[in-house]
C-alpha cells in the first residue's frame, strides 16, 4: 500500500507543477483577475460570538498562514505583473492576507464575504463578483481575496488555503485560465 501512495504522489506532482507554471505565465502577462483563497487560518468555523468588525471574534491567520501570506506576496513581486487593485472580503483573515502579502490596504468588497445562506442572496452575491470581474480592464492584475466557498461557487474548484485561481469572464460565468498553489 505505501508503494501505491508513493507512486501516486509522483504521478500527481508534475500535474500540480504544470498547473502552477501555467498560472505564473498568465500572471506575468498582466490584465488578469485573481481569486485568492485567504491564507491558512486557525480552526474550521467562526466562533458563536462572531462579529465582522472584531477580529478577536473570528478565525484568524495562523502563524503558518502569516508565513504563507508573506510568501505569496514575495512570489507575486518576483513572478507576476504589477497589481492594479486588491479587493477583499471584510473578514480579518482575508484583509490580513492582503496586508501581509501585498503590503497594501485592500479595498473591502462585501460580495467577497462568505456566501449567503439564502439561495437567491447567494446567486446575487456571485453575480456581483462576476460583474466586477467583467468590468475589470487594467493592465496589471486584479486580486480578489475571498473564501474557498466563493471560489468553488464561481469556478467549481475547491482551492487550498492561499491558492490562486486566475479567471476570465465566459458567457454568464467564469473560465479558469490557471492556478498557483503556495
UniProtKB/TrEMBL annotation:
Gene3D superfamilies, A to Z: Phosphoglycerate mutase-like (3.40.50.1240)
Superkingdom, natural source: Bacteria
InterPro entries for this protein: His_Pase_superF_clade-1, His_PPase_superfam
Keywords: Signal
Signal sequence range: 1-19
Protein name: Histidine phosphatase family protein
Amino acid at each position: 500500500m505505501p508503494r501505491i501512495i508513493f507512486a501516486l504522489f509522483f504521478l500527481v506532482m508534475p500535474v500540480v507543477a504544470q498547473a502552477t507554471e501555467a498560472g505564473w505565465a498568465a500572471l506575468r502577462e498582466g490584465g488578469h483577475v485573481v481569486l485568492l483563497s485567504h491564507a491558512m487560518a486557525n480552526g474550521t468555523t467562526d466562533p458563536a460570538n462572531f462579529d465582522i468588525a472584531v477580529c478577536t471574534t473570528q478565525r484568524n491567520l495562523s502563524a503558518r498562514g502569516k508565513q504563507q501570506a508573506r510568501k505569496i506576496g514575495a512570489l507575486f513581486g518576483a513572478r507576476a505583473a504589477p497589481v492594479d487593485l486588491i479587493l477583499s472580503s471584510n473578514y480579518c483573515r482575508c484583509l490580513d492576507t492582503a496586508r501581509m502579502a501585498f503590503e497594501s490596504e485592500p479595498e473591502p468588497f462585501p460580495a467577497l464575504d462568505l456566501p449567503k445562506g439564502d439561495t437567491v442572496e447567494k446567486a446575487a452575491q456571485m453575480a456581483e463578483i462576476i460583474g466586477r470581474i467583467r468590468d475589470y480592464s487594467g493592465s496589471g492584475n486584479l486580486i480578489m481575496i475571498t473564501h474557498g466557498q466563493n471560489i468553488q461557487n464561481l469556478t467549481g474548484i475547491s482551492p487550498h488555503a492561499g491558492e490562486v485561481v486566475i479567471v476570465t469572464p465566459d458567457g454568464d460565468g467564469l473560465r479558469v485560465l490557471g492556478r498557483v498553489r503556495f
